[in-house]
Amino acid sequence: MALQGVGVGRGVAVGPVKKMPDPLPEPGTDPRTADAALEYDGVLKALSAVAADLTARGEKAGGEAKDVLDAQSLMAQDPTLTDDVKARIDDGRTGERAVHEAFAAFQDLLIGMGGYMAERATDLGDVAQRVIAALRGVPAPGVPESDTPFVLVAPDLAPADTALLDLDKVLALVTRDGGPTSHTAILARSKSIPAIVGVTGALDLVDGTVVVADAASGVVTVDPSPDEVAEAEKRIADRAAAAAAPLTDGALADGHAVPLLANLGAPAEAAGAIELGAEGVGLFRTEFLFLGNSSAPTVESQTSSYTALLEAFPGKKVVVRALDAGADKPLSFLNDAHEENPALGLRGLRALRVKEDILRDQLTALAAAQAATTADLWVMAPMVSDAEETEYFVTLGRELGLKTVGVMAEVPSLAVLADQIFASADFVSVGTNDLTQYTMAADRMLGSVAAYQDPWHPAVLRLVKSLGDAGAAAGKPVGICGEAAADPLLAVVLVGLGATTLSMTPAALADVRLELSRYTLDQARELATAAVAATTAAGARAAAEAVTV
After folding, report:
1. Which residue, 202, 234, 352, 370, could crosslink 176 as a Cys pair with Cβ 3.0–4.6 Å?
2. Looking at the domain assignment, is residue 240 inside a domain?
3. If you average pLDDT over every residue of the chain, what do you get?
């Protein structure tokens, strides 16, 4: 029997199933007998303990996991929630019941808002479980203990669990919920652990049942035959050998260079990326300097951070994205207006043009860091829609001393107008996560439309081809910095469509490097031609896989 889902990465694992334990039982509705103040004090202590634990887990995990867990920690300290809990305790509920009801009400509110906020309802539920466990003095439900390795099966995984998985024990992740850009998928990719999300029937699996979890195909094979196990074990050995081989620059089988770059969120992540073979940085997210602050950071503090990053890559290409705030990353000092659909509102460059002083300060700091180091700094604007916005950003960047200035292709209109964009931009970098979201009208953080959030869709691939063709005609580079670049076979297709560089989470570099080495440029173009001729995302992947080389 085989179960189908959405695979994350190219890994494969063989092992027995172990399912996540059931959540804690819902607190009873009996009225409290303790003093209200005492009951509320207990809740505050539990909330504080949970927040501290989540922060500590984030510090230990680092990278993208830290950002996710820091956000959860803030949830545990939200004054709106604590006020609601207090009101319910004053009304006669026990602390446990008050926490359960208050968090559930807030979850319903988030789900009603849709989009990114609806996806965060799962994270909020995990916080509630941890607080109730603290009040009961019992361990919070989490990854099961085991003396032997296993394949973890769950409805979904909380970031706190995914971030600190014991990779010596957890061979692969299989979840019923989630899409290719869910937190489970993102964190699994950053840890280079095979994962298959959105698997119908996953929860019907029985503990101890042996499965082959194949992320490359998105298939979970239940009770595999000896031949299927042997094939999976050979692939595991081949991947291990490739990962242990001496690092080389990214290239196709015919020697055509495809530089492999890293997506980073803080200067401290540079060393790990270099160790895994990153040839530079294809996306440096600058939001870490701004989020959580009541005002924008100074030019001096920004210059210090950017300089630290550039010093880690002497002589190497480093692509920095200007502040991409709005939508799921609101900043009160940039745009505090309520928007019905913030993903389609003032985000990215749109918001920065309204508060141009913030943009000027950032570009000034980047120019100063550029002058102080030998790195090859490229700077790009997010959420750019047309040639006028492109020319605005490029002109401002050059005015402030930047040498190489470009834009991100996340909005379909940019691909439609690609020839106009290259008239002023030095380069374009394709953010496939948002490009897919906007092309398919499917919120990339909403699990209910996960089937539409697939960058393999021919509509998305054709837009990438438009950008690749326009870049080639203009003699200018087109990079890929979205999650699509971390899918090894899709990475080959993207090169066939005209991508000149690929940037990804560092853990994906080895798989992509190996996959590229199997194809010539002509073969990559053949795969790309087959993929764009398909009618569905699944059809595009199947068409590429069917091309024999």
Report:
1. 202
2. no
3. 88
- CATH assignment at residue 227: 3.50.30.10
What is the reported pLDDT for 336?
A: 62
Note the pTM of the prediction, 2 decimals.
0.73
Instruction: Specify the amino acid at residue 108.
Output: D
Number of domains in the chain: 3
Amino acid at 204: D
Cβ(46)–Cβ(135) under 8 Å?
yes
Rounded distance, CA 482 to CA 461, Å?
13
| Structural domain span for residue 416 | 250-546
Torsion of CA 309, 313, 314, 319, to 10 degrees: -80
Residues with active-site annotation: 183, 481
Query: Does residue 428 lie in a domain region?
Result: yes
* Element (DSSP H or E) covering residue 284: strand 281-285
17-69 per-position pLDDT tens digit: 999 888 888 898 888 888 899 989 999 999 999 888 888 888 877 766 777 77
Q: How far apart are CA 100 and CA 497, in angstroms?
A: 50
From CA 233, how far away is CA 28, in angstroms rounded?
48
Distance of alpha carbon 410 from alpha carbon 487, whole angstroms:
18
User: Which pair of tokens denotes residue 145?
Assistant: 């203990």
For residue 460, being part of any structural domain is answered with yes
Residues 437, 476, single domain; the answer is yes
Same domain for 50 and 111? yes
List, for residues 206-252, the tens digit of each pLDDT value.
999 999 999 988 899 999 999 999 999 999 998 888 777 788 899 99
CA–CA gap between residue 115 and residue 340 (Å, rounded): 11
Task: Check whether residue 439 and residue 356 sit in a common domain.
Answer: yes
